[in-house]
UniProtKB/TrEMBL annotation:
GO terms for cellular component: cytoplasm. It comes from Fervidicella metallireducens AeB. Its cofactor is dipyrromethane. This is Porphobilinogen deaminase. Binds 1 dipyrromethane group covalently. GO terms for molecular function: hydroxymethylbilane synthase activity. The modification S-(dipyrrolylmethanemethyl)cysteine is found at residue 237.
Length: 290
């Protein structure tokens, strides 16, 4: 028996899937094969994602592959997975999370703190732009889409001082040597689910137990708390939204940012980790209630 695991064609998606396939083999001695899907999100690169239907575009074509029986499961970056899942699908597992932080990658190794006035920084994320503007209002934001390598190439091609990326992607690609600064996730709040992977499958798949076995309980609680926050705020990728949950013993701390009438609001909440869904929801309500 060989299971088919679908993912996007990008190098990062493939590396992520190889890790999951290796883990499944280690735990169950079951072999898997990668099935590469070209998604709409990867094909349309000249417009920003929110104009063409959001990050869900990375996931939808892969779900179609599963519905057509071309794949048993799929590996996604959790930050690309919309809150609402189509009937019958589940995120069977979220393996242990990688580094959640956003990082700065500069042209010649220049530190973020040493950037000149009016520096040109590349990002297409509303969340990243809004937070950059908060710490450095003089910075000029330049949109850069595409996979990690394409964005890095744009530093030179578009004459940028640098770009903002997720540490997780660079670490998985073994490229963390190009990182010049790590932002503290409390100061510069990451995307909901950043650094986490999700293994998606049909609940009725005969191997669902195999896919569920990769779950890391603390990663699951943190990402679900962040997603609960996003759901309550109806956060798609039009508005700047970010959240970061952390567990210390029995306690969960959740920080969230949200753009409300053109202003960035940031709040946090602490509570019992088993109350993760409520913590996300309550934090969202605290933010809307200002
Ligand atoms: N938006 C694209 C995307 N989706 C997942 C990652 C990698 C990091 C992760 O797993 O969160 C990236 C690249 C980036 O934002 O730098």
């Amino acid at each position: 028996m060989k299971l088919n695991i679908a993912t996007r064609k990008s190098k990062l998606a493939q590396v992520q899937t190889d890790t999951i396939i290796a883990e499944i083999f280690k735990m169950h001695k079951i072999e898997c094969k990668k099935v590469l899907i070209e998604t709409k999100g990867d094909m349309i690169l000249d417009v920003t994602l929110d104009k063409i239907g959001g990050k869900g575009l990375f996931v939808k074509d892969i779900e179609i592959a599963m519905m057509e029986g071309r794949a048993d499961a799929a590996v996604h970056s959790m930050k690309d997975v919309p809150y609402e899942m189509p009937e019958g699908f589940e995120i069977a597992s979220m393996p242990r999370r990688e580094d959640v932080r956003d990082v700065f990658v500069s042209m010649n190794g220049m530190k973020f703190a040493d950037l000149p006035m009016g520096a040109r920084i590349g990002t297409s994320s509303n969340r990243r732009s809004a937070q950059l503007k908060m710490i450095r209002p003089d910075i000029e934001i330049v949109p850069v889409r595409g996979n990690v390598q394409t964005r890095i190439d744009k530093i030179e091609r578009e004459n940028l001082h640098g770009i903002i990326l997720a540490a997780a992607g660079l670490k998985r690609l073994n490229m963390d040597c190009i990182i010049t600064d790590y932002f503290d996730p409390i100061d510069f709040v990451p995307a909901v689910g950043q650094g986490a992977l999700g293994v998606e499958a049909f609940t009725s798949n005969e191997n669902i137990k195999v896919f569920r076995s990769l779950d890391d309980i603390e990663t699951r609680m943190c990402v679900e708390a962040e997603r609960s926050f996003m759901r309550r705020l109806n956060g798609g990728c039009h508005t700047a939204i970010g959240a970061y949950a952390q567990i210390d013993g029995e306690i969960m701390n959740l920080v969230g940012i949200f753009e409300l009438s053109g202003r960035m609001i940031k709040k946090d909440i602490t509570g019992n980790k088993y109350d993760f869904i409520n913590l996300g929801k309550t934090l969202a309500e605290k933010i809307i209630d200002v």
